[in-house]
Amino acid sequence: SMNISLSQPLVGFTVNASDIEIVGQSNNLFEKCYLKIKSVIVEYMGEQAPFALALITGDSSLINSNELSNFRFSGVSHIFAVSGLHIGFLVGLISAFFEILKIKREKKAFLVTFIALFYSGICGFTPSSLRATVMSAILLFAKAKGKKYDMLNSISLSMIIILLFNPFDLLSTG
Fold this sequence. Notes:
- The structure is a single chain.
- The chain is mainly alpha-helical.
- It has helices spanning 29-45, 49-57, 65-74, 84-100, 105-122, 127-145, 151-165.
- It is globular, with a radius of gyration of 19 Å.
């Protein structure tokens, strides 16, 4: 623990994100779930834990910077971003499970959307995960109501919803 006066500029001083501790702020439900997932992965996955955590939650902070650079250089670092692939897989898996249980389509749409939204929260509500969640929800509700799914309207509505919550996401690549 070190006290730093910010009245003078810091020269030649670097801080890693893992060295910063926020005091006096409690974790919300999503952060608590994320921390539990992280602790289980770290405990049971050994040296593969950083990759598992990145693939499941999008958090690549535990991956060695050289290894992360190799992923970026090879053009596959996008697998660590929770987006349509992750949400689509989750929605498909949960939908199939609820189909086996013979849950009605409207109820299934609500439950699957809630689960996908919760997962997006665990992953930090990234724009890409929110976009995929909203688009999946629209697809599920369109099917439940017997309506045709329109991808252009779906992506437009997801953009509007995302920008309502955070207008700065307009500048985000996700």
